[in-house]
Specification:
The complex is a heterodimer of chains A (456) and B (456). With 456 residues, chain A is an alpha+beta fold. Chain A contains 18 helices and 13 strands. In chain A, a hairpin with a 4-residue loop joins β6 and β7. In chain A, α1 packs antiparallel against α2, α12 crosses α15 and α14 crosses α18. Chain B has 456 residues and is of the alpha+beta class. Chain B contains 16 helices and eleven strands. Chain B has a six-stranded mixed sheet with strand order 1-2-6-3-5-4, with helices on both faces. In chain B, strands 7-11-8-10-9 form a five-stranded mixed sheet. In chain B, α10 packs across α13, α11 crosses α12 and α13 runs antiparallel to α15. Classes of the chains: A alpha+beta (456), B alpha+beta (456). At the A-B interface, α5, α7, α13, β11 and β12 of A face α3, β5, α5, α11 and α13 of B.
């Protein structure tokens, strides 16, 4: 938990002796990497900016000869032009489908020869590229990433395959209960927000490989690139590899203004979506608060007892254990940068949907009226604090968690402060938040299936 | 993921066995698992990983759906659920609470060959986890009161079956095919059991099942994480070493070699939820336990043929001919007894299943006529060998891998020698294994997943 600052040659000495010697021989002042070390309880994070200007957070982990690498940009699918919904997803699909002299097949085969992986994906608010590699051939693995960023091919073959796959997924989603529930929800809760825009056959038609390739330069810029890494590698060895990889990217990209989502008024009667299957998927969604809201951890603690804590939650205890109505029911607080919801879901037999929804509402009403008990509060806090280290037992998890911090703009010591925020939650806090947020009338219910006894 | 869940056998692709030793890295050779046996016959394996102060604690029992008596299908999996109920010292509902209050996560899963229970927790709570698992190994109470926990949990299992099986058309088809493939073998009935048999299970059935299978000599303890073998030995002797064998375990499993498919047949399943038809052919395969050399060679050969987008079938049918959206091969190699080996394909829009089948099978026979290239085989076997290094990044994954192999009678040495063994697979051996499976005169089960009207 101590914050340490090491500079220049001192850092190099402390971190990688052999590299340090090299640097001293060449250009000791210009090449010395400034590394800021944060020695936390969950990880020792080394922060540095590469000579090429890329900001990196690294955790050195020598015990396994692998490197987990995350790269991200804070622009996601919301950057799709209105007439070309799906463009960012089309772009990320192509990022490992050939680059430079290597066509798609050659690129994938080269990755297999190196026992590495590299691929990109996109969410609404960010675009990600993840790689993992053996440190013994990190140089060659980075050569391939360098090529992908600098000279991606966007060839006709992989493009046509992408289009065929999307045609199929446009069909299969029609019977996907989760997709149908999500669509129904967006339609009523934020119909006019960019997050409600949907990929369709028409928007697929409007996409092109050229447009996707051009879109890559708008998102994947050097100035917007965030990097986290965990593995058996020093800052001095990693920095030049990252600089080489990013060298082919444009200096700056676009920024997107996303308006905050304002939830529409909840719909009082459950919305039903017909799907022929023995069970119905039931979802419920209401408002929540931002992650930087002082009440955020109060909501997290409350949610554990209400529906987030598995068999320790009231929803599971009542609807699964006591009544046998479902295999599982969960709730969660989702506090994104632009949309914050408190929601949950579970599946139940078509003829018990009415009882199931009533049961969820009864639990909401009870929590609003009587709040949590001291014992529940203590149990929730002790789970949320005690289980936190479980998220830090692998390179991949730590690299992902660090990227989570960076994308959320959280400080490097956040993990060490988080538990105190959970601990500080009081019974008064949770009961106040329950009264404000868990009123049944805050929530819109959706049932996908053939629910009996619901109109609609 | 805190649902008590069930677990289906194993595809080759998730098999990625192997522990240590890509020999050229120091940190690899240092890593050694330990194994010992307590006086009462309970085996113990320790997999040290000191990166985080966390442990994964698992107890594996040598009982699964294959051990069920006729008419009692589903009891192995249902009993796994009951193991979370009361013991003589722990009131109903408290088992989860005790663990979650310590920040622990817990779950369990059932296969045909085994039932496993696990906790992930900060290392200081390991003794408590052992105390709890030891407690429910001997002192579980099966509630017999009408309307009590036995009966509500039986309803939960029925909802689980509806959710994970009956609501998924591809799962329904797969159950039909496997039931035919394993007809007359103990794997014939799905792990979840027949609905009408689950409904008839009684508390007496559960009590008798418990006595016959839950006993220390029928169990393997796996502890992975921040522990030393000596610490685990002392704790295991204290908590498990004192348990007397129940005296009711026969020690015999119903395993036997799987018969050859006696006639070629077509199984179809139509469902209004299906939007994309899929074509499959299931052949007789093998298992790593029954024939390790054959299984290793087949695993490599199937990947060259149809494992992912650099495979020969994928290049031909998806990339070149564009007749398929997807094509591939898989085999169930990690059960004790032989599982199927299969080839499947998803047609491009407008391609009939008959035309697709013709194209896939003629290409497959052309390829196995020609023989494999050394380069393709080398790439596949190196990827498999390297997967043993990547596997070490996941503490719980390692515990699972060791448990799953040891519980069916495999050895630690085999896991450790996996990278070397798989690297020794020659193109000739890989090809011979594939030919053995797909030889023209073999019987097979063809399966079609179809939209409701039966049209493609």
């Amino acid at each position: 938990m101590r914050m340490k600052f090491l500079f220049g040659a001192v850092a190099a000495l402390a971190i990688g002796a052999c590299v340090q010697t090299q640097q001293a021989a060449d250009e000791p002042t210009e090449n010395a990497l400034e590394v800021e070390v944060y020695d936390g309880e969950f990880a020792t994070i080394q922060q540095f900016v590469t000579p090429g200007g890329i900001s990196v957070w690294l955790v050195e982990e020598p015990s396994i000869p692998i490197l987990s690498l995350r790269m991200a940009w804070q622009v996601g699918t919301t950057s799709d032009p209105n007439e070309q919904i799906g463009l960012t997803n089309a772009m990320v699909y192509q990022m490992n489908e050939g680059a430079g002299d290597l066509d798609s097949q050659a690129f994938f085969k080269r990755m297999e020869e190196l026992n590495m992986s590299f691929g990109c994906s996109a969410g609404r608010e960010a675009t990600f590229c993840n790689a993992s590699m053996l440190t013994e051939n990190a140089d060659e693995a980075f050569d391939l990433i360098t090529l992908a960023y600098a000279e991606p091919r966007f060839d006709e073959g992989p493009w046509e395959r992408f289009v065929r796959e999307q045609e199929v997924s446009l069909k299969t989603r029609e019977t996907n209960a989760r997709y149908l529930a999500g669509e129904a929800l967006e339609e009523v809760l934020w119909p006019d927000h960019p997050f409600a825009r949907d990929f369709t056959a028409e928007s697929l038609e409007a996409l092109s490989a050229e447009a996707a390739k051009a879109h890559k330069d708008k998102i994947m810029s050097r100035s917007g690139m965030l990097v986290t890494a965990v593995g058996a590698i020093s800052p001095q060895d990693l920095a030049p590899l990252i600089d080489a990889a990013a060298a082919g990217l444009p200096e700056t990209g676009i920024e997107i203004d996303i308006p905050q989502v304002t939830l529409a008024e909840p719909v009082s009667d459950p919305i039903t979506v017909s799907l022929e299957q023995p069970q119905s998927l039931v979802t419920f969604t209401g408002p929540a608060m931002r992650q930087d809201d002082p009440d955020f951890y109060t909501a997290v603690v409350l949610n554990y007892t209400f529906g987030g804590g598995g068999f320790e939650s009231r929803l599971m205890e009542d609807l699964r254990v006591a009544r046998g109505l479902t295999y599982g029911i969960y709730s969660r607080v989702s506090s994104g940068e632009y949309a914050q919801t408190w929601g949950g879901s579970g599946s139940t037999n078509n003829d018990s949907v009415v009882e199931f929804i009533e049961g969820i509402k009864e639990n909401m009403t009870l929590m609003v009226a009587e709040g949590m008990t001291e014992k529940e509060l203590a149990d929730a806090k002790s789970y949320l604090i005690g289980s936190y280290p479980l998220g830090f037992d692998s390179n991949a998890k730590i690299a992902g968690n660090m990227m989570g911090l960076r994308l959320d703009g959280l400080p490097v010591d956040f993990w060490d402060k988080r538990n105190a925020m959970v601990e500080a939650v009081t019974l008064e806090d949770v009961n106040r938040i329950a009264r404000e947020y868990l009123k049944p009338e805050n929530f819109t219910f959706i049932a996908v299936g053939q629910p009996q006894g619901l109109d609609g | 993921m805190t649902l008590k869940t069930w677990f289906i056998g194993g595809f080759a692709s998730v098999l990625m066995l192997g522990g240590a030793a890509l020999a050229n890295t120091e940190s690899q050779t240092e890593w050694v698992p330990s194994q010992f046996t307590l006086d009462n016959g309970m085996d113990v394996v320790v997999l040290p990983d000191h990166r985080a102060p966390v442990v994964t604690h698992m107890v594996w029992y040598k009982v699964g759906a294959a051990d069920e008596v006729p008419g009692k299908s589903g009891i192995a999996h249902f009993f796994e659920h009951l193991m979370f109920k009361a013991t003589d010292d722990i009131p109903d509902g408290e088992f989860d609470s005790i663990i979650q209050r310590r920040g622990g996560q817990l779950n369990a899963f059932t296969s045909w060959d085994y039932t496993a229970y696990f906790e992930r927790v900060a290392k200081q709570h390991l003794p408590k986890m052992m105390e709890l698992e030891a407690e429910r190994m001997t002192d579980l109470i099966v509630e017999e009161t009408p309307g009590g926990s036995f009966f509500t949990e039986r309803d939960v299992v029925k909802e689980e079956r509806r959710q994970v099986l009956e609501s998924s058309p591809s799962r329904v088809l797969s159950e039909m095919v496997l039931g035919t493939f394993w007809e007359g073998h103990p794997y014939e009935i799905t792990i979840l059991g027949h609905m009408e048999e689950i409904e008839q299970l009684t508390p007496e059935d559960a009590v008798s099942f418990y006595g016959q299978h839950y006993s220390p000599e029928n169990a393997i303890l796996i502890v992975a994480g921040d522990v030393t073998p000596e610490e685990v030995r002392v704790l295991a002797e204290e908590h498990y070493g004192q348990i007397e064998p129940s005296g009711l375990v026969s020690g015999e499993r119903k395993w036997r070699s799987v018969d050859q498919i006696d006639e070629t047949q077509l199984i179809t399943h139509s469902d209004p939820k299906v939007r994309q038809p899929v074509w499959y052919r299931y052949y007789n395969g093998t298992s790593l336990r029954r024939d390790r050399d054959f299984a290793l060679a087949l695993d490599v050969g199937l990947d060259v043929l149809g494992g992912g987008n650099t495979s020969l079938l994928y290049q031909s049918l998806v990339e070149d001919k564009k007749l398929a959206i997807d094509v591939g091969t898989f085999a169930w190699l990690s059960l004790h007894d032989e599982g199927p080996a299969a080839v499947y394909a998803t047609p491009s829009p407008g391609v009939s299943l008959d035309d697709l089948e013709e194209a896939v099978m003629s290409e497959l026979y052309r390829l196995i006529e020609e023989g494999f290239d050394e380069a393709d085989v080398k790439r596949v076997r190196n990827s498999k060998a390297a997967s043993a290094i990547y596997a070490r990044d996941s503490q719980s994954g390692m515990a699972n891998q060791f448990g799953r192999w040891l519980i069916i009678g495999g050895t630690v040495d085999q896991l450790l020698s996996y990278p070397d063994e798989v690297r020794a697979v020659t193109p000739e051996r890989a090809m011979a294994a594939v030919r053995e499976v797909f030889e023209q005169d073999r019987n097979y089960i063809e399966a079609h997943l179809l939209p409701e009207d039966g049209e493609q």
